[in-house]
UniProtKB/TrEMBL annotation:
Identification of the protein by name: LLM class flavin-dependent oxidoreductase
Native organism: Flavobacterium sediminilitoris
PANTHER family xrefs: LUCIFERASE-LIKE MONOOXYGENASE
Pfam families: Bac_luciferase
Domain Luciferase-like: start-end pairs: 1-232
Organism placement in taxonomy: Bacteria, Pseudomonadati, Bacteroidota, Flavobacteriia, Flavobacteriales
Length: 296
C-alpha cells in the first residue's frame, strides 16, 4: 500500500508564509524518510496560504529530497496559460527525472482574482474549454506541437494526473491515457461512488490493454486530544473531513477505504495545524509498510 501527502500551505496564526514553506520542506523530508511515495502541493488563491501557485516551491521540495515524487494537485487549468504550465513541468521533469507529477484541475477562485490571473483572457471560457487545454498541455510537453519546442527537446515528461470528484473525466482519461486522482473531500454532503473507479478501470483496460494509474485523496486529522479533534471538526467547514480521531485507528481506516475504492495508493490532506499535529499523523507510518493487493 502506498501513501502520499497533499499540502495546502495554510499559514497558522502564529506563523508566516516563509516559516510555513520551511515547515513544508521539513514535512517533505519526513515523508520521504517514512516511505511516502508522493508529496503534492495545491494551487489555491485564498489569503492565508504560503503559496498560491506551487510551481516555485516544487523545485525546493525536489532539491531537498532525493527520491519522493513531488508535484501539483493541481494546476488550475483555466487560470494558467497551457504553454507556461507545459514549460515549467517539462523542465522540472528533466531536472528531477521520474520524480515530477503534474496534477491538473478544473478549479477557480474569486472572480476578481480569476480576472487578474487570466490576464485579459476569458477565464470562464477557459474553464469551459478545460479538456482542450489539458490536451494542449500534454501535446506541448510531448513535443507534438510542431511550431513550439519546449526545452529540453524530446526530454522526459512529468506524470500527468487529472483530478476530479465525478465520472465526467472518464472518457478523456481513457483517450489521453492520463492518471486519475479521485477526491473524497471536495464534496461535503456525500462521498463519490466507488463505481467511478470501477467503471474507469474496466473501460480503460478494455481500450488500452493496461491498468490505469488511479489513487484517491482524503482529508485527515490525527490526535488523541478530543478537544482538538472537536475544534478541527468545527473549524473546517469548506471541505469534508474524512477522518478525525485517534492515530491508533487511522491505518485501519485507510485500508478500509483502499478496499472500498479498490486502489493501492491514497493521498492524505494533513489537517494538522501545528508541526506536532502534522507529525502525529505522519508518524502513524513509522511501522513497516505492508502490502495490499487488489482483488477482482
Amino acid at each position: 500500500m502506498n501513501y502520499g501527502i497533499l499540502d495546502f500551505g495554510s499559514i497558522q496564526s502564529n506563523s508566516n508564509a516563509i516559516s510555513t514553506i520551511h515547515e513544508t520542506i521539513e514535512m517533505a523530508q519526513l515523508a520521504e524518510e517514512l516511505g511516502f511515495t508522493r508529496y503534492w502541493l495545491s494551487e489555491h488563491h485564498e489569503d492565508n496560504l504560503a503559496w498560491k501557485n506551487p510551481d516555485i516551491i516544487l523545485p525546493l521540495l525536489a532539491g531537498y529530497t532525493q527520491k519522493i515524487r513531488v508535484g501539483s494537485a493541481g494546476v488550475l487549468v483555466g487560470l494558467n496559460a497551457p504553454i507556461n504550465t507545459a514549460y515549467h513541468y517539462k523542465l522540472l521533469a528533466n531536472l528531477y527525472p521520474s520524480r515530477i507529477d503534474l496534477g491538473l484541475a478544473k478549479g477557480k477562485t474569486e472572480e476578481h482574482k480569476s480576472i487578474e490571473l487570466a490576464d485579459g483572457s476569458d477565464w470562464k471560457k477557459n474553464l469551459d474549454d478545460y479538456f482542450n487545454r489539458v490536451r494542449k498541455i500534454k501535446s506541448l510537453i510531448n513535443d507534438q506541437v510542431s511550431t513550439i519546442i519546449l526545452p529540453p527537446k524530446q526530454g522526459e515528461s512529468p506524470e500527468i494526473w487529472v483530478l476530479g470528484t465525478s465520472k465526467s473525466s472518464i472518457d478523456f482519461i481513457i483517450e489521453e491515457k492520463t492518471s486519475f486522482s479521485l477526491s473524497l473531500f471536495h464534496i461535503i454532503n456525500e462521498l463519490p461512488s466507488p463505481d467511478i473507479i470501477k467503471e474507469l478501470r474496466e473501460q480503460y483496460i478494455l481500450k488500452n490493454r493496461v491498468e490505469p494509474n488511479i489513487n484517491i485523496t482524503l482529508s485527515a486529522f490525527c490526535s488523541d486530544d478530543e478537544k482538538r479533534v472537536a475544534a478541527i471538526n468545527e473549524k473546517t467547514k469548506h471541505i469534508k473531513i474524512n477522518y478525525s480521531g485517534s492515530p491508533d485507528y487511522f491505518k485501519d481506516f485507510l485500508e478500509k477505504q483502499a478496499e472500498i475504492y479498490q486502489v493501492n495508493e491514497i493521498i492524505i490532506l494533513n489537517l494538522g495545524e501545528t508541526l506536532e499535529e502534522k507529525q502525529a499523523l505522519m508518524n502513524v507510518f513509522k511501522v513497516e509498510k505492508h502490502e495490499f493487493k487488489i482483488t477482482n
